[in-house]
Each structure stands twice: as structure tokens, then as C-alpha cells.
Amino acid sequence: MYELKPLRYSENSLEPYISSKTVDIHYNKHAKNYLNKLNNILNELNYDFSMPLNELVVNIEIFPIEKRDDVLFNAGGVLNHDLYFSNISPNRNIYPTGQFLEAIDKQFGSFENFKNEFIKKANILTGSGYTFLVLTRDNKLEIINTTNQETPYLYGLKPIMTIDLWEHAYYLDYQNRRSDYINNFFEIIDFEVVGKLYEENIK
């Protein structure tokens, strides 16, 4: 069966940017609910859990067509939450370095340009979804929005960074001030983790 990655930090360690109550509800209720639903559906389909989850979503045709939406929705929920919770932390690694910084400078001109573009993209997303930094098939960096629990893996893209823009990710702390949540995301992003993902995926 699939599992969520465990949190690398205590639930209160992202304060004041994200409260312990939000982390608790978001991780232990919402994220785990996607996991439980996914595993239950796959058990009902007698799936053997042989593929990594990111490969499963691009091989969705192995499942009956009437079950594919449920599998994709909940698999996306697990993948997206895994990435979100792993690329934030209290470690204050809020500036990229090394190869990853070089790639950002090449693609966006500077880190500030990248940051501004990511924030701009997140602010224009309507409804529930995510803003991702992804690697394209030719290893270029791109910022994209997806809705609901859609995962970039469906499009042959490799996500290395994301902000969760569902209301449950921020509403207890920010209410309707979603833009403040988006700006503060850059106070808890862990670019050491994102940079390692970048290096792993360009090999």
C-alpha cells in the first residue's frame, strides 16, 4: 500500500507563517484522507502496488475507465501533498544555491524574477489547486498551475516545488488573505530540498 512521507518537522515549527492547528488538520486529516481513499480503491481493484505512485498516474489505463477519475484524484492528492509538505520547513533555506540557482538565473534572469513570477502565477489561480515549479521533458524550468488534485506527472512534467492553494492549506491562519499566505510561503520554502530534487531529476 502507498504511504505519505512523514513530516520532517514538528507541527508548530512553521509558526508564525502556518499554525500548528493548520498543519495538524492539513496533514493528519486532509492528506491522509486522500491516502486512505486511494489505498481502499486500489485494494478493491486488486492492484498489487507494484509501481511508484508517480508511474501509476501515467499508466492509468490499467484500471477500468469508470474508476480512473477516482484513482487520479486521490493519487494526485497524495503526490501533491507529499511534495508540498516536503518542500517547506523551518530550516530557513530560503535561497537556492548551486546548479539549481544557475538554472533559475538562466531561465528567469534572477531569483527575484523567479520569485515574483511564482507569486504572480499563484495569485491568478482560481478555485482550488496548486502552483508548481516543474521540469519539462528537456529539463527546462517552468511554473504552472493545476486545478483540484491534478498532478503534473500526467503531462510528462516533473514537479519539484509546489504551494497548496486549497483553502484548507491557509484559511484558518489567513482567512481571505490568500496573497499573504503566498508571499509568506517564501519564508518557509526549503530550497535545499528543492535543489536536491532538481539535481536528481536532471540526471
Termini separation comes to 28 Å
Look at the structure and name the CATH superfamily. Answer: Iron/manganese superoxide dismutase, C-terminal domain
CATH third-level topology: minor pseudopilin epsh fold
Radius of gyration: 17 Å
**Strands, count:** 3
How many DSSP helices?
A: 8
What is the beta-strand fraction? 5-15%
Low-confidence spans: none
| Biggest sheet record | 3 strands, antiparallel
Record the strand order, biggest sheet.
Answer: 2-1-3
Chain-averaged pLDDT: 97
Q: Could you say which structural class the secondary elements and strand pairing correspond to?
A: mainly alpha
**CATH architect. name:** 3-Layer(bab) Sandwich
Q: Give the helix proportion (percent range).
A: 40-55%
The CATH class turns out to be: Alpha Beta
Order of helices and strands: HHHHHEEEHHH
Shape: globular
Number of domains: 1
